[in-house]
Write a structure and sequence with these properties.
There is one protein chain. With about 700 residues, the protein is α+β, with helices and mostly antiparallel strands. Helix content is about 45%, strand content about 15%. The strands form 4 sheets. Strands 7, 8, 9, 10, 11, 12, 13 and 14 form an 8-stranded mixed beta sheet that branches. Strand 5 and strand 6 (about 175-180) form a beta hairpin. Helix 18 (about 480-500) packs across helix 19 and helix 25 (about 635-645) packs antiparallel against helix 26. It is globular and about 90 Å long.
Length: about 700
């Protein structure tokens, strides 16, 4: 597996480095780092929102080097940073990497990190990416308590099979854990498709003794074994401290903040009446891949080790205990009852969601909560298997569950011809994950602030929106799928333009805002099916994206500065940031991109099929659409009331304003034609000139 995986990896790196995936050419080490970070984030699921940023230079008396980082939300409780450094050889044969070489790379990354916690940013050029990375680390220095350093290599090393190392930081209280990821470890994690396999809990070491339990007889032959136990809250705190949200990977309602009544109640109970917590709390449900037990004497059994641990129910309890511990609440008297089910590997995806569904919980999981086995995702996967590209030579690959792509690739065996055909039909750059699907649809739904929250949080919000807006019987059809792929293409193309446009930071957020601006300014008149047909965007649209990216980047910074906000990343997560971007006067070219239009059916009648005609949007029509969409539904109501009382609006204008108000209330789901948009803009101008109440909305 490792040799074939190495060949696949090097081919992908070379393909990307040469610009074969549509991106700009780059050094292979940078491409390797970015690709592996994508795998660790999207496939393995152990990091979130990593950014590839290369820095190398002399700091003090030694060399410092880093290839990327991932820093969580700027919230006091988000106290972990991930750092990445690569030892890349670009070899075609399995090669052993010297331990000293990997350890030297670790020392160089640590030297960078310590300098970034200090004043390194002040010595860097603000126009370059390393400045933004170093400044962000510096600004977060007071909340960073833990750091994980990933040493990535395309070779082999025994360090990747050893326990993670802990390296003390000079003059710092940060707990730094070093993980070595070589080719074999990465291939194994991808092949399994289950990131929780990396969670290995040495119960005896963490708590000082095995966890007493009651083994239960199997409830269904050899499908699973089960244990009932009582977990000290201090142990649960330590486990969550080490592994965080990865424990909740199978619990789609991952704990975000203690805002709900249940979450506040849990924390209040922990703080005020900790000894009663066991009596008040319903307990948690856990699953695992394997459990090691030992005899405690007197016929009792204890759990000494758990591998592949997941909290499938009780995420709120677990995370509330962790948060309370971070707030220095005494957990020594708190205990949690737990049911631990060890499931056979081939049944994990089937049984784990059912356990979560039927378990007794404080906040019941709704049937519409999405998982890999939800009908929506199953249907998208089916469509990806049957809908071919317009040239009928290839398909896109929808990865319904993590690791499916590499499993499908490995299923081709060692037959080079079959592997080559698979890659030609479904290359890696035409793969979409669940997290990416939610991102592509969300930006097109004009929610760049939601996407800026990060992949997991946006996915949860996307899931909630689908549950609230679609009937249970709804399934995506072929048109939905083709438009989804078109949205993916637009997003990837905008990413390429932004990444090569000289923007020093906020590149991921800027991509989201630019795509949402396209959706907003075109008002439903963007021809996604044309993008599907061409499998790319036009040169005219690429030029427009490049111009808009500069305007939007400046707009985000200016609107943040007016509010005296220095953290642009946090500002991008706010709905008000998107409102400010909507107000920007983004220019349209004289010749509109071909995507700015749509196919309409004309004429037709008895025995005559309607003719399909492409209708292009003029810049003036686009402007009118934008002006109308900037006005909120309640503002349209005030305009109607003002026009009626003042007599400034005639019957026709009041009818148009009413229709536009209804469209605004429906989230502009219904398109408005160019004539109606021009009439609406005239009404807006009339109201602004004669004492109407729309000036603040469209200024």
């Amino acid at each position: 597996m490792s040799q074939s995986f190495l060949s696949e990896l090097q081919a992908e790196v070379l393909h990307r480095a040469s610009g074969g995936d549509g991106s700009s050419p780059d050094f292979r080490e940078n491409v390797f780092t970015e690709y592996v970070m994508e795998l660790l984030s999207g496939e393995v699921g152990i990091v979130e929102n990593p950014e590839a940023v290369h820095y190398q230079g002399e700091i003090g008396r030694g060399q410092a080097r880093i290839n990327g980082y991932a820093l969580a939300d700027d919230h006091p409780e988000q106290d972990t940073i991930d750092l990445f450094v690569a030892v890349y050889r670009g070899v075609d044969e399995l090669t052993k990497i010297l331990t000293k070489e990997l350890e030297d790379a670790a020392k160089q990354a640590v030297r960078f990190f310590q300098a970034a916690l200090g004043d390194l940013h002040a010595r860097l050029d603000p126009a370059h990416d390393p400045f933004a990375m170093a400044q962000r680390i510096h600004d977060a220095r007071s909340r960073i308590k833990r750091a994980r350093l990933f040493i990535l290599t395309d070779g082999l090393s025994d360090l990747a099979r050893a326990k993670p190392k802990v390296m003390p930081l000079k003059d710092s209280s940060v707990d730094l854990k070093i993980e070595f990821w070589d080719l074999e470890r990465l291939a194994r994690a991808l092949a399994s498709g289950r990131p929780h396999e990396e969670i290995d809990i040495d119960v005896a070491a963490l708590s000082g003794a095995p966890l007493a339990c009651i083994p239960l007889p199997s409830g269904s032959g050899d499908e699973y074994t089960a244990f009932v136990t009582v977990i000290p809250a201090t142990l649960l705190f330590r486990i969550y401290e080490d592994h965080g949200p990865r424990l909740l990977e199978r619990n789609v309602r991952s704990f975000l903040q203690a805002k709900g009544k249940v979450n506040r109640g849990i924390r209040d109970s922990l703080k005020v009446q900790p000894s009663r917590f066991f009596a008040y709390n319903n307990g948690i449900s856990l699953t695992a891949d394997s459990v090691e037990t030992q005899d405690l004497g007197n016929g009792s059994v204890g759990i000494s080790r758990i591998k592949g641990l997941q909290v499938v129910n009780g995420g709120q309890t677990t995370a509330s205990i962790h948060r309370s511990g971070k707030e220095k609440i005494d957990l020594s008297k708190v205990f949690v009852q737990a049911k631990l089910t060890v499931i056979q590997p081939d049944l994990t995806d089937e049984l784990a969601p059912r356990i979560a569904e039927f378990a007794n919980t404080q906040n019941p999981i709704q049937m519409a909560d999405f998982s890999a086995n939800d009908p929506f995702h199953i249907e998208i996967e089916r469509l990806s298997n049957v809908v071919w590209l317009p040239d009928q030579q290839g398909r896109w690959f929808y990865e319904r569950a993590r690791g499916q792509y590499f499993v499908a690739l490995s299923n081709e065996g060692r037959n080079d011809a079959r592997v080559k055909r698979f890659k030609e039909k479904t290359p890696a750059h035409r793969k979409i994950t669940k997290i990416e699907l939610a991102k592509y649809i969300s930006v097109w739904d004009q929610l760049p602030n939601s996407v800026s929250l990060g992949g997991q949080k946006n996915f949860v919000q996307f899931t909630q929106r689908i549950r609230e807006t679609k009937p249970k019987t709804w399934k995506p059809d072929e048109k939905f799928y083709k438009e989804l792929i078109a949205k993916a293409i637009v997003y990837k193309e905008v990413t390429r333009v932004v990444h090569t446009g000289g923007f020093p930071d906020l590149r991921a957020q800027l991509v989201a805002y630019v795509v949402s601006a396209l959706a907003f300014r075109t008002g439903g008149h963007f021809d996604l099916l044309l993008v599907w047909q061409e499998q790319r965007i036009s040169a005219q649209l690429e030029d427009l994206v490049r111009a808009w990216a500069a305007e939007i980047s400046a707009g985000i910074r200016d609107s943040a500065a007016r509010r005296k906000l220095s953290n642009f990343s946090e500002w991008c997560k706010k709905a008000d940031c998107w409102k400010e971007v909507q107000k920007l006067a983004l220019p349209f070219p004289l010749k509109m991109p071909p995507e700015f239009g749509k196919v309409e059916k004309k004429s037709g009648g008895w025995g005559v099929a309607p003719e399909e005609v492409r209708v292009a949007m003029r810049p003036d029509d686009m402007d009118a659409q934008t002006q109308c969409r900037r006005v909120a539904a309640e503002e349209w109501i005030r305009i109607i009331a003002w026009g009626t009382e003042s007599g400034h609006l005639d019957a026709r204008q009041k009818q148009v304003a009413t229709e536009l108000g209804a469209a605004a209330a429906a989230g502009w789901a219904k398109e408005i034609d160019a004539k109606r948009a021009r009439e609406g803009r005239a009404i807006i101008n009339l109201a602004m000139e004669n004492g109407g109440l729309v000036a603040a909305s469209v200024a």
